[in-house]
Amino acid sequence: MTPRQLKTFLAVIRHGNLTRAAVEVNLAQSSLSDHIQALEEEMGVELFLRSRQGVAPTPAGMALKAYAEEILALNDEAQTAARVAAGISEASITLGTLETIAAERLAPWLSRLRRQNPDLGLKLKVGGSGELHAKLQHGSVDIVFTFDRGQQDERFVTRRIASEPLVLIAAGSSQIPPPESLAALRTAPFIATAAGCIYRHLLDTAFAEADLAAPAVAAEADSIATIIRLVASGAGYGLVPSLALGPSIARGDVVELPWPGRALAASLVMMWRRRRVQPPHIAFLLQSASENLSPIRPADARLRHAG
């Protein structure tokens, strides 16, 4: 099996469609089919089930998936180690992050970093937490900045670099009294991100820990800025990171209300692939992030996986 075959195999799994997978790996569909057929012949098993709805991995295909990801990661690591040893490692890094973190935490730091290191190439990709983790898995980003959900993956290092408080907000013109309890708040309409997003996860978890059903979601929005605007219009409550509120609070668009329960906060973490040899430019950026992105006290620091 070759790296190209494995990349093709993983692209088919991601898309569940040969045409879209062929576009991703820049192959004609017939050539992609040849790659998959050759891999199946070498493995001696069928890797995909074909139907009119698309293709889906067989149990054998799913078993191969994890190994294919590791083989490709090790292949990339070997190439990186050789280039580092030869002194020709590329100084280009792709970062993945959530919209709020990008605007409020990363932008000032990256701007300074770029001015001080003009030869360092930086790319920034913004997406949801699940999308970012997938990008890290298949190597399209080098480092991810997101909020911790407590999920562990031995392939990656996760380092906590700050704690971001979450706040309850309502429309500035509403004059809503502070909620007396979580039970009372449960009946109020909320504007929230979609299920699976870290902010929605923290909202649902807060009520679950109090043995209460999550509140009704009046509307879902895919960005914190949109949630704040909808709350300002009077559409409902919102639970958002305090770092995103500055201008809206100053204008009086929204007001912050006391949360009637245990204070909520999200741990800001950065994640990267574990390697035997870390490229110097990535090691440099990780060190800079640890030192400049609102570092927490050493006693509170948590490095879940050494690497």
Automatic annotation (TrEMBL):
The keyword Transcription applies. It comes from the Bacteria. It holds the Pfam family LysR_substrate. GO terms for molecular function: DNA-binding transcription factor activity; transcription cis-regulatory region binding. Gene3D superfamilies: 3.40.190.290, Winged helix-like DNA-binding domain superfamily/Winged helix DNA-binding domain (1.10.10.10). InterPro entries: LysR_HTH_N, LysR_subst-bd, WH-like_DNA-bd_sf, WH_DNA-bd_sf. Keywords: DNA-binding, Transcription, Transcription regulation. Residues 1-58 form the HTH lysR-type domain. Belongs to the LysR transcriptional regulatory family. This is HTH-type transcriptional regulator TtuA. The lineage of its organism: Bacteria, Pseudomonadati, Pseudomonadota, Alphaproteobacteria, Hyphomicrobiales.
